[in-house]
């Protein structure tokens, strides 16, 4: 019940105002052939696209988030195909509380070993977040006390979207990005606090994991970290940006969400949990688990193959190539993320019109990057996002930097 909440404590959705403000930017990007493109893959990061009614054109893609280039690795493709052949079906339309593919149990066991946690898989990270956050808000993971749910202002849209739902269960607040002083003030003033953030932020930067651990030890802070962009590119077994800094057994007041796409190179999402009771709660009461279907067979086969690759030299080699490409980029283009060991670079241009114009010019030069503008970033902070991967050729990275510099 929420009878003790003031009206102002309820987060308000502003979808109408958001659309009214952003639609001109989206329309401009669509009209310039920069969004919702269709393509077929080529070698490495090349894709063949059609835009402006022209014939097929090959460009180098700096949009996809497969940071290690595993999404087209032969072993992962073969894993998907072999799984389909073995099971003779793609999908079971059945809630997971009823029936699951046997190979899914093998995958979750393999991932649990890889990440040193109890892993529950989901079809997407969005589904994982949707299923997890209400359970945290219920107080079942915080000694029966419903926690204040505190969101980092830059928390991904797939996290922030759920604020309204959570406000029906408990109080919800949003604090400035990575403001640990504000978070500590809330920890002092409330019996239970849960902090929701990204591990690696989709527009660059990362969460201060060491400081968050200190607050957890001092106040019992519950941490929910969406590390979709950090998995595989970081850690000896690709455990990710957040998990690699939380050595040993995962704390019972920490949950990490992660992607089986992006750096991992397959498809789907997961949660890293710490206790048998947590796993029981999530398998029984997480909406996206209890009332929806599992990963399809091809995705399970691909993820199993990727998990095996994570125990080979392939992982370390691709992590090293990614870092080499980041070094090339940082040597030629200065951004707020220069020198960071994370693969996202953003170039702020200020004007939305300029962002669209620059990205269109780079597309004409043979490079597909992302035009970013409100609501993805704050008003007046429009620009270009570049996703670097281990599959990019160093020469292509240099040519991209030349195109950026002349734009």
Spatial ordering of strands, largest sheet: 4-10-9-8-7-5-6
* Uncertain runs: 1-8
* Strand percentage: 15-25%
Over all CA atoms, what is the radius of gyration? 21 Å
Helix proportion range: 40-55%
Order of helices and strands: HEEEHHEHEHHEHEHEHEEHHHHEHEEEH
Give the biggest sheet.
Answer: 7 strands, mixed
Shape: globular
Structural class, from helix and strand content? alpha/beta
Span of the ends, CA to CA: 55 Å
Overall mean confidence score, pLDDT: 92
How many β-strand stretches?
14
Give an overview in words:
There is one protein chain. With 407 residues, the chain is α/β, with parallel strands linked by helices. The protein is 41% helix and 16% strand. It has 15 helices and 14 strands. The chain has helices at residues 15-31, 74-87, 102-115, 125-137, 157-160, 163-167, 180-189, 209-219, 241-244, 276-285, 287-290, 297-309, 313-332, 352-364, 394-406; strands spanning 39-41, 46-49, 57-61, 118-122, 148-152, 172-175, 193-198, 222-226, 254-259, 269-273, 344-350, 367-368, 370-372, 382-387. The longest helix has 20 residues, at 313-332. It is globular. The protein starts with 14 loop residues before the first helix and ends with a helix.
Key phrases:
407 residues; alpha/beta; 7-stranded mixed beta sheet; 4-stranded mixed beta sheet; 41% helix
In short:
The protein is 41% helix and 16% strand.
How do the strands and helices of this protein lay out in sequence?
Blueprint: H1 15-31, E1 39-41, E2 46-49, E3 57-61, H2 74-87, H3 102-115, E4 118-122, H4 125-137, E5 148-152, H5 157-160, H6 163-167, E6 172-175, H7 180-189, E7 193-198, H8 209-219, E8 222-226, H9 241-244, E9 254-259, E10 269-273, H10 276-285, H11 287-290, H12 297-309, H13 313-332, E11 344-350, H14 352-364, E12 367-368, E13 370-372, E14 382-387, H15 394-406
Helix pairs in contact: 2-12, 3-12, 7-8, 13-15
């Amino acid at each position: 019940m929420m009878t003790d909440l003031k009206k102002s404590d309820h987060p308000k959705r502003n979808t109408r105002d958001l659309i009214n403000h952003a639609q001109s930017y989206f329309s401009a990007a669509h009209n310039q052939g920069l969004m919702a493109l269709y393509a077929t893959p080529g070698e490495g990061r090349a894709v063949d696209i059609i835009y402006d009614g022209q014939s097929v054109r090959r460009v180098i893609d700096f949009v996809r988030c497969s940071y290690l280039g595993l999404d087209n690795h032969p072993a992962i493709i073969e894993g998907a195909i072999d799984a389909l052949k073995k099971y003779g079906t793609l999908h079971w339309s059945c809630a997971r509380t009823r029936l699951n593919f046997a190979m899914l149990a093998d995958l979750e066991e393999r991932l649990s070993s890889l990440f040193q946690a109890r892993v529950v898989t989901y079809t997407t990270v969005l589904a994982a977040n949707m299923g997890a956050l209400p359970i945290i808000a219920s107080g079942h993971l915080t000694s029966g006390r419903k926690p204040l749910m505190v969101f980092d202002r830059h928390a991904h849209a797939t996290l922030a979207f759920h604020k309204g739902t959570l406000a029906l269960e408990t109080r919800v607040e949003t604090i400035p990005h990575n403001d640990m002083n504000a978070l500590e003030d809330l920890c002092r003033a409330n019996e239970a606090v849960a902090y929701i953030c990204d591990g690696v932020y989709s527009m660059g930067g990362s969460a201060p994991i060491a400081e968050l651990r200190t607050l957890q030890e001092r106040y019992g802070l519950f941490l929910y970290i969406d590390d979709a962009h950090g998995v595989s590119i970081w850690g000896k077994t690709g455990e990710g940006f957040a998990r690699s800094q939380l050595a040993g057994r995962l704390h019972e007041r920490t949950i990490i969400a992660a992607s089986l796409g992006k750096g991992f190179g397959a498809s789907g999402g997961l949660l890293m949990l710490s206790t048998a009771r947590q796993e029981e709660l999530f398998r029984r009461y997480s909406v996206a688990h209890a009332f929806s279907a599992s990963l399809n067979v091809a995705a399970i086969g691909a993820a199993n193959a990727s998990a095996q690759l994570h125990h080979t030299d392939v992982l370390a080699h691709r992590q090293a190539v990614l870092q080499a490409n980041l070094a090339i980029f940082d040597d030629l283009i200065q951004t707020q993320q220069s020198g960071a060991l994370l693969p996202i670079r953003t170039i702020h241009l200020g004007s939305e019109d300029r962002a669209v114009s620059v990205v269109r010019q780079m597309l004409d030069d043979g490079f597909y990057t992302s035009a970013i503008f409100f609501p993805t970033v704050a008003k007046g902070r429009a620009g270009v996002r570049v996703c670097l991967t281990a599959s990019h050729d160093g020469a292509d990275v240099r040519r991209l930097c030349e195109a950026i510099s002349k734009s």
